[in-house]
């Protein structure tokens, strides 16, 4: 089955269950100060869940363009290293706004996977929220457990904690317990050696979560407490690329027909071969993944820039450029050339890729040449700093120079250092950045009002960096 057919079957199935099929919301969010990018299918329906607005229809389904590179859902570090987390991905979903609840959501998910897509029942596991004895003090989801028990043997039901089985959009907003469906893609032999149940949620590349059924019943308030939502809702999200992996009999999202044409094109352009060497493979996967995030963002009207969402996109592209430069040995712009293949494979479902192809290519090519013009020099500087460093940690001042003069986003510098077994003095970097900010502030104080606009930009840039900080700290934490 092709990915086009898989997507169409999902939508047809829920159309048959009286769902209205709606278009994906933009991936780049312009009107919500709490969220820069859509990170789940439910984002566009947030107001319905909160009861602030009434939906005209009670049941909808769609495929949603998502990006998970910042905030609560940040998968950037896994991308390319594993074979099932992307920056940009499609999330298939069905929703009930105060209409059906757990019974139908569970029964239909099972029907679609096993009767329509014909996934072997013996390869599926489900999970149920076990409850929590923290401040929320929540009970186990007995209702979901009993429903699953009537469908699958008890040893296929896994009890899950808050991390895996309580879905929250962010620090605030609608949330609730969830039941997830996992698929075991291992060979028969491997399955007899280790039971699949023990590998669920263990970051195993062949025992992966495909679908999350969230039962929205709470709203997390600003003070951290939970209140009941006025009505109960269903919010589901299924990773489209992972579903295609399961249905196409492959063991990596990158071996599906969604990614294969991109990888083939990268092989042609770079002269490298996918599947021979892990370092090269990671770089190829990173490029194949990141082109999608950047192209979809530009198609949504968000160009790479120095502030806010634009800077997130710039960081993603620069990350891909550097992987190409160092590991695929390509010293000139090439990622923009993948936009053609992308618009061919995904343009039917997302026509904006076809309509904006020229813009996507032009912007990316320009971004690539501009970063490539300083990348090599920056890498030389970084190498010499590493060589002359007396301990394992690189001074923040140097990272700031790379950022300021050579356009190295801080997380890129941290990534390169991590590869070489070094750490970054994040505080020193912050200090240098703040000093620059203060300089530009005092400069603007003496200038005329026109400059206030520039000042605002500088301010935003700093806010953008704040969200990076968490990321860099994570890198440091993992190494320890
Ligand atoms: P995981 O545990 O694998 O990180 P998740 O629990 O964070 O996934 P959910 O928030 O439940 O994911 O999202 C619903 C579905 O979207 C998941 O079941 C998965 O199939 C898919 N998904 C989530 N994150 C990604 C990603 N980064 N790339 C591709 N698919 C994803
Ligand atoms: Mg996740
Ligand atoms: Mg999960
Ligand atoms: Mg999940």
From TrEMBL:
Superkingdom assignment: Bacteria
Assigned keywords, A-Z: Aminoacyl-tRNA synthetase, ATP-binding, Cytoplasm, Ligase, Metal-binding, Nucleotide-binding, Protein biosynthesis, RNA-binding, tRNA-binding, Zinc
Cofactor binding note of this UniProt entry: Binds 1 zinc ion per subunit.
Cofactors demanded by this protein: Zn(2+)
Main localisation: cytoplasm
Reaction equation(s) it catalyzes: tRNA(Ala) + L-alanine + ATP = L-alanyl-tRNA(Ala) + AMP + diphosphate
Any one cellular-component term (Gene Ontology): cytoplasm
Subcellular location per the Swiss-Prot or TrEMBL entry: Cytoplasm
NAD is among the record's keywords: no
Residues covered by the Alanyl-transfer RNA synthetases family profile domain: 1-480
Record's function text: Catalyzes the attachment of alanine to tRNA(Ala) in a two-step reaction: alanine is first activated by ATP to form Ala-AMP and then transferred to the acceptor end of tRNA(Ala). Also edits incorrectly charged Ser-tRNA(Ala) and Gly-tRNA(Ala) via its editing domain.
Free-text comment about domains: Consists of three domains; the N-terminal catalytic domain, the editing domain and the C-terminal C-Ala domain. The editing domain removes incorrectly charged amino acids, while the C-Ala domain, along with tRNA(Ala), serves as a bridge to cooperatively bring together the editing and aminoacylation centers thus stimulating deacylation of misacylated tRNAs.
Descriptive protein name: Alanine--tRNA ligase
Originating organism: Flagellimonas ochracea
Lineage, opening ranks: Bacteria, Pseudomonadati, Bacteroidota, Flavobacteriia, Flavobacteriales
Residues of the full protein shown: 1 to 480 of 876
């Amino acid at each position: 089955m092709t990915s086009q057919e898989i997507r169409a079957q999902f939508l047809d199935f829920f159309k048959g269950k009286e769902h209205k099929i709606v278009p994906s919301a933009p991936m780049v969010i312009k009107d919500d100060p709490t969220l820069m990018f859509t990170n789940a299918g439910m984002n566009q329906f947030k107001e319905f869940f909160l009861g602030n607005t009434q939906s005209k229809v009670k049941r909808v389904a769609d495929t949603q363009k998502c990006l998970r590179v910042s905030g609560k859902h940040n998968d950037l570090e896994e991308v390319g290293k594993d074979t099932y987390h992307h920056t940009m991905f499609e999330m298939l979903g069905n929703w009930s706004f105060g209409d059906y609840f757990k019974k139908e959501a569970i029964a239909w998910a099972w029907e679609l996977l096993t009767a329509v897509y014909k996934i072997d029942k013996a390869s599926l596991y489900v999970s149920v929220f076990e409850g929590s004895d923290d401040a929320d003090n929540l009970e186990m989801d007995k209702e979901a457990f009993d429903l699953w028990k009537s469908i699958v043997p008890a040893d296929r039901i896994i009890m899950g904690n808050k991390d895996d089985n309580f879905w929250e959009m962010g620090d605030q907003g609608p949330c609730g317990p969830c039941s997830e469906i996992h698929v075991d893609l291992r060979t028969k032999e491997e399955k007899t050696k280790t039971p699949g149940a023990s590998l669920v949620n263990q970051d195993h590349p062949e025992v992966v979560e495909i679908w999350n059924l969230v039962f929205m019943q709470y709203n997390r308030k600003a003070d951290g407490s939970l209140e009941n939502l006025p009505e109960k809702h269903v919010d589901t999200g299924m990773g489209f690329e992972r579903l295609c992996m399961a249905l196409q009999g492959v063991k990596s999202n990158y071996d599906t027909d969604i990614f294969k044409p991109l990888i083939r094109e990268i092989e042609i352009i770079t002269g490298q071969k996918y599947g021979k060497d892990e370092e090269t493979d990671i770089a190829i996967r990173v490029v194949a993944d990141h082109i999608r995030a950047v192209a979809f963002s530009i198609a949504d009207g968000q160009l790479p820039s120095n502030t806010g969402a634009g800077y997130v996109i710039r960081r993603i592209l620069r990350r891909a450029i550097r992987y190409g430069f160092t590991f695929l040995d390509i010293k000139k712009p090439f990622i923009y050339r993948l936009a053609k293949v992308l618009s061919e494979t995904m343009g039917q479902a997302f026509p904006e890729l076809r309509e904006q192809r020229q813009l996507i290519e032009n912007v990316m090519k320009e971004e690539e040449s501009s970063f490539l013009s300083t990348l090599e020099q920056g890498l030389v500087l970084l190498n010499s700093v590493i060589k002359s460093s007396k301990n394992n940690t690189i001074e923040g001042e140097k990272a700031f120079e790379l950022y300021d003069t050579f356009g190295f986003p801080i997380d890129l510098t941290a990534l390169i250092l991590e590869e070489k077994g070094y750490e970054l003095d994040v505080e020193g970097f912050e200090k240098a950045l703040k000093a620059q900010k203060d300089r530009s502030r005092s400069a603007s104080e003496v200038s005329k009002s026109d400059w206030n606009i520039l000042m605002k930009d500088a301010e935003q840039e700093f806010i953008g960096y704040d969200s990076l900080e968490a990321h860099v700290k994570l890198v440091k934490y993992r190494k320890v």
